[in-house]
Please model this.
Amino acid sequence: MGKTELNAGLLTPLQQLPTSGARAVEVFTTHEGTFLAVPQLARDVPGEPPYMNGGDSDIEAPIYRWQDGRFIEHEALALPGGEDLEYFEIDDRRFLAAAGIRTGKGPYDLDTDAVVYERIDGAWVPLQRFPVFAAKQWFAFSFDSRHFLALAQGVVVDGVVPKHPRQSCLFEWNGERFEPFQTFGGQWGYNWAFTRFGGEHYLAYADHVSGSSVHRWDGEKFAPLQVFSENGGRAFRFFEADGALWMLHANLLKHTTLYRFDGAQFIDTQVLGGAGGRELCLVDGEDGRYLVRVCFITGTPKAPVVVPYSEIYKWQGACFELVGDFATSGATDATSFVADGQRYLVVSNSLSDEIRFRTDSTLYRFNG
Model:
């Protein structure tokens, strides 16, 4: 355990999933059942010294099926250097967008293809390929009968010159395919979040080196509203409480910040935790709203320190109160879902203490 032992009974571990460098967890439900997709960065290479950006990245993403209160292996999707899988639907069509940061076993190629698949006759069939550079996340959202797919990508590496487009961007669905809609200026994109509030539409973009930002729809595009100039941006989350719009921003290098929107700007109101936060998961439990702050590493990629816990907070009206922490291992993502009347939490773990990729991810029963 880390700093503050988690309140007894809030999380009950149910299942360990044998993942390798897991980077995200995506739970989705269709007429075929409930599924968990886990993109994986790499597998360990025997005899290779530990390095969080090493390994064999020519790997697949397992897709598990929910059965009798647990996940069972169901199928797999080829996804080298897997970073993200995003499930979404448009009308009666079902899609899965896949993003990987690289291919190869060393040297690696950061110029890859990101693929949008469509579910047809019980199989994931490639619909569209996108040339990308160090792709990190796909994020689907819709409003006013328009459907968008946002891509966070890019990295700054000495000596690496992108051959593919490197800026994060938006695509819009034209009825059959996604076409380019808007480009953002970031060089090292990680994440997106979208919300509607007060008749307006807001899109947040997290970037590691170019400053993270919030944009507002002006009727034609997303226009800049506010910039957070520090390095280390990883994730945003929006939520509403007491008639106000709130926003969380995880910064890997510093801390996580809670903001309240005053109608013009997001005003910082609380600092949560320290360095190492990578993802944020809001959980609406039976007795209130919880926040899971997913903690990854501190230090540098060449000398990383695996954070051995993640934190859970509870919303207390105008701030989050730390409930405690629970054991994780270089955690990268968390998501909650409800099945058979019970709420669950899945957390992806990506690195062991020895900086090895082979680390179980965990399914919990959430009792809050």
